[in-house]
Structures are given as structure tokens and as C-alpha cells.
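Sample entry was shown:

___
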Amino acid sequence: MSLTDQQKIDLFDRIWQEYVSTHGLGGMAKSDFDALLLWEYAQALQTADTFRLSAVFRIRESRAKSLLESAAIKFGQLTEAEAWTQLLAALAQVDFHVESVEKGQMRFHLKTPLLFRHLQNQARLIDDSLSFNAASEYVVGNLSALYRILDRCWEEGIFGEEWQGKRLEQARQHIRAIIGNIGQQIAENHLEALKSHKKSKLPAILEYGSKLSGIGGFIKGLLDSAS
């Protein structure tokens, strides 16, 4: 995980800007400087692999995770639109698993853990919540919450003026892929259980999802299969 000469120059410029120009020499706490250094290095290599980063910086992986989480809040400059562009692209690549047929809960590995706070923020805006295990990087939540979040993401302008045009179309492609991946997992592994499990909340969740204004049409086929 070595940097090119140009990456080293760019990294030094960014650290100089934050550590010297913004805070003044010595004006930043050591823990913040550690977080800044790790953050800028990770950004330069476009990685959030804390195992590899911990080896480079010779620290525990848990500390690398903590520093990155702190830096993402203090030094990350992603807009909501930029964050959700990355988040939806990542979610389109993950495998979704039914955590509980009865409760309608899903589980998935979030490969961009630094963006979980954006996902959780949207969950809170719909009066819901998701749980995130920092050790395993798995997220668990109700499928209806995920459907509602995706439906919000479908709306033009939900994340400001940037959320339109090509960016929005790309986001909608990722949303279609996410819904398709969830549907495929349910159809292949839990369809018979859904038909026989009278206490399961999943059918009601699928029916609810099929009525959402933005993404409902993509869910209807799975609802028909489960009925």
C-alpha cells in the first residue's frame, strides 16, 4: 500500500492545510492529527480496509477503525449526495440475508462502514433505526425501513440540487439492483417459508413496499410470487 510521489505531495498539501493553515502549528490534538494522517492516507489510496491500514501504521485494527470514524466526521467533506452515490453503489454489490422471517429483518455486510452514519440518519428521519456491529461490519434492520429509505433516495432533489440528472439516474440503477438482490435472496431461500409461516411479517412488508410511489413497481413481482 505504497503511495506514488504525486500522492505523497498531495497528501502533504492536505495535511499542511488542515494541521498548519487551519489550526496553526501545535493547535491540533495528537489524536486528531493521528486521525487526519490515517484518513488522508486512506483517501489517497481509496481504501477503508482497516486490517491493511493497521498493518501500515502498526496499530491495532480497532484503533484504525476508531480513528477513521472520528476522521470521517471531522475531516470528511462529502456532501449527502456524494455520500449516497457511494453508499448506493456499495449496497448494490452486497448480499442481503433474511435475519428473521418472522420479524422481516435483513442483514448485510456494509463494505463502506464509514458511510453507515448517513444510512442511520435516513432511518431516523423515517422514525426507525438500524443496528451496526463495528466488529463484523454487519447491518441489521427491518426490510420495511430499507424499502422506505430506498424510496426516499429515488426522489429527485432529496439530497439537494446535486441529486438529479446523471447522478440520480445512476443512483436509481443501483436502487433497482439492490431491490433485485433482496428479492432474489428471498425468492431463492425463503419463498416456501413465507407461504407457510403465518406469523411472518415479510408478506405485509412486501405489500407495503409494492405501494411505495418510487420503487413499488420493482417489488410487486416478488409480492405476487409470495402470495
Summary: The first helix runs from residue 5 to 22. DSSP finds eleven helices and four strands in the chain. The mean pLDDT is 85.
